[in-house]
Amino acid sequence: MARRELDWEKRLSKNIPVDRTGRPYFNAYAGPRHIYIEVGLRNDRYGGPVRCLRSMAEDARMPHEQDDHLVHGRYDTVHWPDWESGFQCLGESLAFLGEEEIPFEQWGELHISLPDDELPYDMSSPLLLPLDSFSNLRTLTWKGHRKQLIASWLPFTPTLLRTLTTLEIQCDLSLQDCCHMLFYGENLKEFTARIIQRDLSTEQMLGFVPPEASYTTRPLEYLCLVSDDDITPLFRPFNFPALRRIDFTLAHPAWALFPPKTDVGSSASVLLQSKAVLYRSRSISQERQVL
């Protein structure tokens, strides 16, 4: 085994727990174009993480060498007592995939599923994933704890957001965090945010500073929000001339504040006032059960 591969094997094998029969809680598998990496889930057929990932990448490539790939990364803490090393293992595995097997430039979709609990992360560690290499990444779905929006090997920087056309986020968010994503996601056509919390209105994670310009035009066509905060301010900095479909789940008191009684500073205001809006008064607690 080459030295570079041995180095990767050492990095990826570090701290991987095993069950009573010696089977590790690290799994990877693939189908055409789809690649799945599951850290914390048991693998019944295992020959080391590098061999597992190489075999999986080969399955995903053929016969789709030139097509964009759909990468799925999942971390489950139930069988991985050291949360920090497990989180790091998923990041290392994605880095190996992009550097050694399927270049980041060929990733068209990325789907990340993390625990709802906050995960430890060393912010001084080198960034594992080169965000400027995701030049063809169009779709990102992300589930986890809001701290991981920044404390992660995939921080939500402007560089990451600018190429996306579809973004779906599932974690507790502030309204300002959503503004950050819409402002830097300048190519977004579909945006879903669950769940905007009024209790987090002064605790934004992404440090958004409102633009000086009156309106910022975005090509958004679909907007889905789950919120118990007043979402009216979300429309003030933006102009959404292409918006055609919206799906809002608003809990009280946000429900009582919508639709806005005054101009919200957007060409979408007429749409928001119309019957095209799909209202759902389901409570946030009920929404969590569904999710």
SSE topology:
Layout (H helix, E strand, L loop, with lengths): L2 H11 L12 E6 L2 E6 L9 H13 L7 E7 L7 H19 L5 E7 L25 E5 L14 H4 L4 E8 L1 H10 L5 E7 L19 E2 L4 E6 L10 E2 L5 E6 L18 H5 L4 E3 L3 H7 L1
Parallel strand pairs: 2-3, 3-4, 4-5, 5-6, 6-7, 7-9, 8-10, 9-11, 11-12
Antiparallel strand pairs: 1-2
Helix pairs in contact: 1-3, 2-3
List keywords for this structure.
two-stranded parallel ribbon; 291 residues; single chain; alpha/beta; 10-stranded mixed β-sheet
Question: Describe it for me?
Answer:
With 291 residues, the protein is of the alpha/beta class. It is built from seven helices and twelve strands. The protein has helices at residues 3-13, 49-61, 83-101, 158-161, 175-184, 269-273, 284-290, and strands at 26-31, 34-39, 69-75, 107-113, 139-143, 166-173, 190-196, 216-217, 222-227, 238-239, 245-250, 278-280. The strands form two sheets. It has a ten-stranded mixed beta sheet, with helices on one face. A two-stranded parallel sheet has the order 8-10. α6 (269-273) links the parallel β11 and β12 (278-280). The radius of gyration is 21 Å and the shape is globular. Residues 261-288 have low confidence and may be disordered.
